[in-house]
Amino acid sequence: MMIEKIRLAKNAHALNDMVAQQNRHLFKEAGLTVVNMISSPGSGKTSILEALGRQMGHSLMVITGDIQTQIDKDRLEKAGALATQIETRGSCHLTAHMINAVVKHASFSGVRLLVIENVGNLVCPSSYDLGEDEKMAVLSVAEGDEKPIKYPSLFIRASAVIINKIDLLPHVNFDMARATADIQKLNGNAAIFKLSCATGEGIDALAAYLNSLKTARPG
Ligand SMILES: Nc1nc2c(ncn2[C@@H]2O[C@H](COP(=O)(O)OP(=O)(O)O)[C@@H](O)[C@H]2O)c(=O)[nH]1
Ligand SMILES: [Mg+2]
């Protein structure tokens, strides 16, 4: 019984990876940079993407995943970005199949950057390849400085980590030196951005980084 379960889980992952490769091919054909943004609920993913949307307009497309509601899609469109909502109806992460169903008929005319805002969860989303160029982790200072070492799987895989809500630092017990040292221990190559969506601090540096990803892509 246990062996059968493990076999099924392995098959499901293999199938996901196959569709992720199809997505990656499609994204490359469309000349897109694709980022898979992952965090716990409420760390500020949509707020960061709203700030980017106000700068980038329709050159930013977001596919946003939630258990239910179209709230984030509406917020992102209002901020100026293109947005599509996936309601997973209970699933705690997006899969390559869910993304494929959206992107296989989508028009990417004028789009430079596609961000997939994953379902809020620090664990499951990090083990599903969606066909992205890179994973980006978001951690807010209100969540606690020990979260990277408690939930290492995301931070090990992320090319960039955003530490958000730095405007709240005077009000919370968040040791920035500890958090950044732990992130660097887990992943020496991760770029770290300190951000506040409330004040706008750090948004330009993040936008410049995302733009440099585009120019670094071959073809
Ligand atoms: N003080 C402060 N609040 C923020 C910041 N970023 C987001 N928030 C708030 O945090 C809450 C959750 O943000 P949201 O973008 O929905 O997070 P998501 O669930 O990760 O998409 C909202 O009430 C935001 O207004 C920030 O930098 N500073
Ligand atoms: Mg959100």
Describe it.
The chain is 42% helix and 19% strand. By secondary structure, it is an alpha/beta fold. A seven-stranded parallel sheet has the order 3-2-4-1-5-6-7, sandwiched between helices. Bound molecules: guanosine-5'-diphosphate (GDP) and magnesium ion. Residues 39, 41-47, 120, 164-165, 167-168, 196-198 line the site of guanosine-5'-diphosphate (GDP).
Question: Characteristics of this structure?
Answer:
alpha/beta; globular; 42% helix; 219 residues; binds magnesium ion; single chain; binds guanosine-5'-diphosphate
Would you tell me the structural class of the helices and strands? alpha/beta
What integer value in Å does the Rg equal?
Answer: 17 Å
Low-confidence stretches: none
Spatial order of the strands forming the largest sheet: 3-2-4-1-5-6-7
| Average pLDDT, all residues | 95
The secondary-structure element order is HEHEHEHEEHHEHEH
Distance between the termini: 48 Å
Question: Which hetero compounds are present in the coordinates?
Answer: guanosine-5'-diphosphate, magnesium ion
Helix fraction by DSSP (H/I, runs of at least 4): 40-55%
